[in-house]
Structure formats: structure tokens, C-alpha cells
Design a protein that fits this description.
The protein is an alpha/beta fold. The chain has helices at 15-26, 40-50, 58-63, 79-88, 103-116, 130-141, 176-192, 261-266, 271-279, 338-350, 358-377, 392-395; strands at residues 6-11, 30-36, 53-55, 69-72, 92-95, 120-122, 147-155, 196-204, 215-222, 227-233, 301-305, 308-313, 316-321, 325-329, 381-382. Helix content is 34%, strand content 21%. Helix 4 (79-88) runs parallel beside helix 5 (103-116), helix 5 (103-116) packs antiparallel against helix 11 (358-377) and helix 7 (176-192) crosses helix 11 (358-377). The chain binds nicotinamide-adenine-dinucleotide.
Length: 396
Amino acid sequence: MTYRPVRLGVLGLGRAFMLMLPTFRNDERVRLVAAAAPRAESRDAFVAEFGGRAYGTVEELAADPEIDAVYIATPHQMHADHVEAVAAGGKHILVDKPLAVTLDDADRMVAAADAAGVRLIVGPSHSFDPPVGLARQIIAAGDYGKVRMVQAFNYTDFLYRPRRPEELRTEEGGGVLFSQGVHQIDIVRLLCGGRARSVYAMTGAWDPERPTEGAYTAILDFEGGSFANLTYSGYAHFDSDIWMDDVSELGGCKDPASYGVARRALCDLDPEAEAQLKQTRTYGTGAEPPRPEANEHFGPIIISCDRADLRLMPGGVEVFGDETRSFIKSPLDPAPRKPVIDALVDAVHRDRAPVQTARWGRASLEVCHAILSSAARRKPVTLTRQTGIETEETQL
Ligand SMILES: NC(=O)c1ccc[n+]([C@@H]2O[C@H](COP(=O)([O-])OP(=O)(O)OC[C@H]3O[C@@H](n4cnc5c(N)ncnc54)[C@H](O)[C@@H]3O)[C@@H](O)[C@H]2O)c1
């Protein structure tokens, strides 16, 4: 069935919006009709590119009657207030990950969406990446038995990308857990059924100039018996993309000559100059998003099932079976992040929820906090707010 395009409003025209541009420019199922942002420069650029209306506040955007849904791409600590405002206007919501920084905020967001009767999708997140969806289909087909163990591993330059000061303060949502760990947690929860029982973790905050967590390793155990090991380092040394066909997280081809570029760009910058550098990478500055040449990914991930190991790659899933090894392709869609727009269309036109609802996002956020707490206490932490991959009825 063909539906009319979803009329989307955007809140926040920064880096995250920039990374959605290849999707918004190429997916005909969505039409950008309005935006709200504090910077006049980005509002003007939006109207010049997409037409439509540009507002200064979330309340004006939420009150616009010609909008079906709003993509919230503001800093994470603002997500809860913004979700409440948009839900009060009766619009469906796509809110970028993480759902929030605190679990109290996450509770407010679940309640706001429920009270308004709107759908809330937490995304984009790498759990929507097509090879993850393909792996889920392969697992569901049952030929290889149950998922027993997942290894998820990612070494990046995350901590040395230009940041606003609060992005380097853990209590305000800074560091690798809330921005990066949540992708890995979402993927692993999807593959292992969603309901983690406990976490045992260590974290590293090794650079006094950037005194937030830059690394962690965590063991999760799941209802059903599977377990997972999640490791992340954002310290800009080893780069695990060399094990992903030299494809970057965003699907671009990586040039080995660019080694060290992130740290070099920050050399001698004070926090204000660094925040300004971040601003130059956002919408309305003339900067353009990287062009994906392959599917996005979140580092090497290996899923051990009874009768095969599955390796997620940008181009698909490699299956190491009992006797044969094969590769199942996952083609790059001309409009990247298609599964995110599938979820948006389902929410707006079919009143259907994806797995990545507000409750799902809250459960992934609980794991982020549990990793921090386990590392601080040197003890396993029991999880109490997990959700599974539930049916439509149980999500409501
Ligand atoms: N999924 C992804 O690939 C991805 C990538 C980057 C960031 N993110 C997420 O997106 C969110 C934003 O991060 P970012 O890196 O784009 O930050 P950013 O600072 O580049 O952008 C945030 C934007 O929000 C705007 N803003 C601030 N207050 C506002 C308000 N009251 N109303 C409207 N707009 C307001 C700012 O002007 C800025 O342009 C974060 O939650 C982050 O985790 C996701």
C-alpha cells in the first residue's frame, strides 16, 4: 500500500540532522515541512532547501497543524522536555538516541507519549542498520539454532571529535556510554531478545583533559541464557574499521592516510574554539554530510549460535556454518536509514510501533547506567526495567 509522504517537523538542526540529510533528501516517503532551531542561520538554510516553516521554539513547532511527526535532534539532556512538548501537540515522535540521560527523564517520556496516545521511536540508532535486521531474519529462520553469545567490539576516535563542554561531563550525558554505548547495547539487546538480567562492567576515563568515560567493557547476561561481551574504546588509537572493510561507521570509505586526524584537529583548541569547530560541522554552515557508500555499522559483531557464527559486515552477514562459509548480502539502499523511515511510516499511517519504543530506549539507558554503576562499585548490577522484543499489544 502506498501512503502519502509523512509530513515531518525537525527540532534541532545540528550534527544529527546533518547525518539524516541523505535520508531526507532521497526517501520520498517523508517530506520535511517545518523546523525549529535557535540559530537563524540554520532556520534560513532549512527554508531555502526544503521550503516550509521555520520556528524559534518547540511549542510553535508542536502546534503546527500540518505536521504528522517530529524528529527531535537536540542534545540528549533536552530530549525529555522536548518530547513532552511535542507529545502535548499530538505529534508522533522520532527522538534521536539516547532516549534521555536520566531514568527519571525516560519515565517522563514514556508517560508523555502514553498520555498523548502518540508513537515514540528512538532512532536513528545502529540497531536499525540493515545487516542487523538481516542477522535477525537469519536467526529467526531457525537453521542455526539459538543465539548463545554475542561479541560486540568497537574502537573509534569518538572522544576526540569536537565537542560542546557538557559532552565531556558524564552527569550531563557526556562520554562514550550515552552517545555510543547505547548503540551497541541496542544491537546486542535486539540480538539476544531484549531482556538483560545483569551487567558486570569496567570503564576507563584515562585522559585528564577529557575527563569522562572513553572506554568500557561489559558482560551482559540475558533471560533465555545467552550472554554478550561489549567493548568500546573512543581513544583514537586502534581503529576497528580496518576489520569492517575500511568502511566508516557512517558507511563512507576510510582513507588510511587520515590516521590521527581527529586528535590533530583539536590540538591547542580551548573549549570555546572546540565547540565552534563542532558548529562548523552542522547544518546551515555550508558543510555537507558524508556520502554513504556502504551500510552503516557499529564495529565488528559476532553472533554465536548453536550451528553457526554470524559476522555482521557493512555489506551483509557472513555465516560460518558447521561445514560451509557463505555471505548473505544486504544491499545499500539509495535512501540510507530506510528502516528508520519504515518505522516512521508505520507509526504515522498504520499506528504500529517498532521494537525501539520509549520503553525499549529506557531499558537500553538502564544498561548504560548499570555499566557506570557496576564499574564504580566493582560489582554486578541487576537490571529491573528491561523489555523484550514484544508484540504490538504488550508495548502499548
Ligand atoms: N544517530 C546518530 O547518528 C547521531 C549522530 C550525532 C548525534 N546524535 C544525537 O543527536 C542529538 C544531538 O546531537 P548533535 O551532535 O546533533 O548536537 P548538535 O549540538 O550538533 O545539535 C543540536 C542542535 O540542537 C539545537 N538546539 C538546542 N536547543 C534547542 C531548542 N531548544 N530547540 C531547538 N533546537 C535546539 C542546537 O542549536 C543544535 O543545532 C544527541 O542526542 C545525539 O546523541 C545522533
